[in-house]
Amino acid sequence: MKTKTIVLIHGLFVNNTSWKEWKTYFEAQGYTVHTPANPGHAGNPIDLKKNIPSDLKDVGFDDVVKYLSTFIDTLPEKPIVIGHSFGGLMVQKLIDMGKAVAGVSIDGAPPKNVMAPFSTVKIVWPVVNFFKGNTAFLGSKEWYHKAFFNNYSREESDKLYEAVATPESRKLARDPLFKSSAKLDLKKPHEPLLFIAGGNDHIFPAEFTKKMADAYKDKNSIVDFKRFEGRSHFIAGEKGWEEVAGYVLDWLKKVN
């Protein structure tokens, strides 16, 4: 029987509320959809910006992996995992661990053994900044406009910031650069993976997402790549997200 359970995994700088429309979309297609909030990330983004959770600064890569894998173990079947940005790295990790039947990485972050380009390092430097220690990071409206909401006017971007932006753990952002657990086996057989890239993504350029997909070497495992022209890093929430979700749905019908 085909899997009808989906786990949507959010990325950095936002939380699980960013998946609201996707949850509704896939539930209408007959799926059971879960949108867990990573440790330290639960709540209304408006409130989280005003009162940053005290435990957020201590959340790391292994904490999120353990949380998600433990959550998946409570489900009645192995799920499909779909993740955005850092959530895309979580998708790759969960596939590597054998925790899912298929995975979709949307504008996903790389594992430790795939080097990100300098343009990525430059734009995420404010959060990985080693001089700041393990503190919580809250991006400015200017930073979000440059990194996330670059397909919107500044006025529209500022409104999205109020509704969507959340504080982040610097430790969580840095860990994949150093943690051995963030290194994946890109040569072994694995369940189907789809990598989606936005042609106007300022954090992870589409060419880099293609490089990440090409890093998987097992000839008998499915690895697909799709580029959506003109889409930003906010691809899963910006205008036209339905086209992206529809593409994912069609792909899942083929591989699952």
Detailed description of the structure:
The chain has 256 residues and is of the alpha/beta class. 39% of the residues lie in helices and 13% in strands. The protein contains ten helices and eight strands. Helix 6 crosses helix 7. The model has no long low-confidence stretch (mean pLDDT 96).
Provide the fold topology.
Blueprint: E1 5-9, H1 20-28, E2 32-34, H2 45-50, H3 61-73, E3 80-84, H4 86-96, E4 102-106, H5 118-128, E5 136-137, H6 141-147, H7 154-164, E6 168-169, H8 170-178, E7 193-198, H9 206-214, E8 223-228, H10 241-255
Parallel strand pairs: 1-2, 1-3, 3-4, 4-7, 7-8
Antiparallel strand pairs: 5-6
Helix pairs in contact: 6-7
Summary tags:
single chain, six-stranded parallel sheet, alpha/beta, two-stranded antiparallel ribbon, 8 strands, 10 helices, 256 residues
Task: Report a brief summary of the structure.
With 256 residues, the protein is α/β, with parallel strands linked by helices. Helices cover 39% and strands 13% of the residues. The model has no long low-confidence stretch (mean pLDDT 96).
